[in-house]
Specification:
Spore Coat Polysaccharide Biosynthesis Protein SpsA, Chain A, 5-stranded antiparallel sheet, 2 domains, disordered N terminus, 324 residues, alpha/beta
Length: 324
Amino acid sequence: MEPITTKAPAKIGIVIVWMGKLPSYFPLWMRSLVKNDGYDFYLFTDQPVEGAVPANLIVVRMSFPEIRTLIARKLSLEVNIPFAYKFCDFKPAYGEIFSDYLKKYDFWGCCDIDMLFGDLSKFITPALLANHKKLFSRGHLMLFKNEPAVNAAYRSSNIIDYRKALESPAYCFFDEWHGVHLIFEELGIGQYNKDVMGDIKVLSARLVCTNIRNYTPQIFAWEQGEVKQYHIEAGQLTFTELAYIHFQKRKIALPDSAVYTSNTIILNPRALLPFQDPITTAVVKEYDRADYNHYIGSQVKRIRKRLTSFNKQTQSFNKTALHP
């Protein structure tokens, strides 16, 4: 049983850096912030944000060169950021990079926008925040205690060279398991890593997750601010509620504008679809579909990328840069 706390709710500020055109599903990402009004989200972007912006989303317009300059100044590094995905390596340092915006928060965090949030309050509780300095180790959502030792932890390792990771032009996975997660383990700083989200596999034809139990059939839905994994067991409809669903590296279309107002949004391999009726076993069976065009296209793209990188003797991903 979690201990009872009488403290005021923690103030949490989450940073997102996005350069270039915002994805088509961005308005739905914004919609999923509304139920999470206990969090402030800071979006640093070079793009205009249109539509209904929730009260807890603060948009900070900043160009690619401006944010590179800010990072170099705050971290005293010679940064080389040739492509936007490289910003992921800097996520563990956001507490220092964006310190001017995060001073009032007890925790700061980082997240992606290729996702829909559920009700985070059900998964990130006052007891968890009171007993851990860091929550989660998947780069699409992490929270850190906003205190100097924690904010500086990413550069305090004896086994992982943060300078090599951040100064390398390649993406080095510094924000994930073999980067900042290992550093916090080395330093003995408490982390919470229960998988409470759905992390969709990139190359799968069906929507299956990398981190939680999968079922046949199953679907993922956003319902009035909650994310659910619906499945059928012993002929009965059941569901697992999730903190969020992450549909990484997929081209997600919005074929019907009703998705902006519908009570339910169902995710399929290529689209976010509006849905108004109750979800039943028949609905789960109908909407669990495989998209083999996506699977084949993703595999071809992956092979071509590897061949191109090999022929040019370049490397846009490099895990070995983490170590001295």
